[in-house]
Give the backbone structure.
Amino acid sequence: MLDLIITRDCDDLVAPVDIYRDLPPDHFATVCSLRMARPKSVKNIMTFRKIRQINIEDFCQDISSSSLITKLASDLASHIEQYNNVLTELLDKHAPVVERSITLRPNAPWFNDSLHNLKRKKQIYKDACHTYVHMLCA
């Protein structure tokens, strides 16, 4: 709860202020609306492949039957191009490129390194406690 609302005369930040006097005699509730626009969210397109979901046996079989093994290029430049093309095709088949739109959020000014370190310590203690409890129950 705020004790005081201070603005400049030239600012149009605070909408009408209401004071509720229905509380105990030495307390008043002050309610106001702030005219602030939420910052526009910035979206970013992220592309990636789900490499861990590749079926290794199928991938190896496709490499064995590819032109890298069956029809080798004659010179080095052609071989490099063939290598890149075949592996790109195989990756597109087994792990296609996935696009995701993510919203970039600004850092909270109150979340500093000290708070980050405290949260990390809390998680370490939490994990240690969880491990200890499982050891006791085992």
Observations:
- The radius of gyration is 31 Å.
- The CA atoms of residues 35 and 81 lie 59 Å apart.
- The longest strand covers residues 42-49.
- Strands lie at 18-20, 29-31, 42-49, 97-104.
